[in-house]
Amino acid sequence: MNNSFTQMLLNYAPLLVLFVVGWFFGARHERQHLVRLKVAELELRYIIVSTERFYQPKMNPDTQGELVLGSVVIAQDYFKMIIARVLSLFGKNLTTYETLLDRARREAIVRMRIQAQAAGYNHIYGLRLEVSNINQLGSMVEAIAYGTAVVSIEH
Q: 82 with 16: CB under 8 angstroms?
């Protein structure tokens, strides 16, 4: 019995080690990404973003609206995919996918703001977000944020 248990440990140890290493680096990468997002959002907070479609801010007379967009593809690590599969069997809330979608939306908005900043705009209105799965496992999502950027005289 002891020999079979030892054999089982030797057979599954590499899988377990890879699983733990994947979880560690996946969680570390996600934390670093969230920190970078927070920093970028704080740096770009002067660019006002509004979801109102027909709203037009008081614009500088010399400005014209321009379409700006940000796009990102983010993949989920395999550890979180396995946890999500197990939780879905029990009908639980899939918070692992919620964090993936939240990171994707925030990153797309940051990239859209960067494009507006590069063109000298300080206001984006008519913001729209689109998120879609790229592969059938649901581990990769694409988020696109777009809106109309203008130079506004109100803050």
A: no
Q: Which candidate, 131, 76, 125, places its Cα nearest to that of 100?
A: 76
42: left (phi over 0), alpha (psi -120 to 50) or beta: alpha
pTM equals 0.81
Residue pair 127/51 in contact (Cβ under 8 Å)? The answer is yes
Q: How far is CA 20 from the centre of its chain?
A: 23
In 3D space, the residue among 35, 49, 48, 37 whose CA is nearest the CA of residue 107 turns out to be 37
User: Locate tokens 């939306």: which residue?
Assistant: 105
pLDDT band at 17, cuts 50/70/90? confident
Judging by DSSP bridges, how do beta strands 123-133 and 140-150 pair with one another? antiparallel
Q: Which amino acid is at 89?
A: L
In this model, does residue 135 exceed pLDDT 60? Answer: yes
The rounded distance, in Å, linking the Cα atoms of 48 and 154 is 10
| 116 pLDDT higher than 90 | yes
Query: What's the chain's Rg over C-alpha atoms?
Result: 22
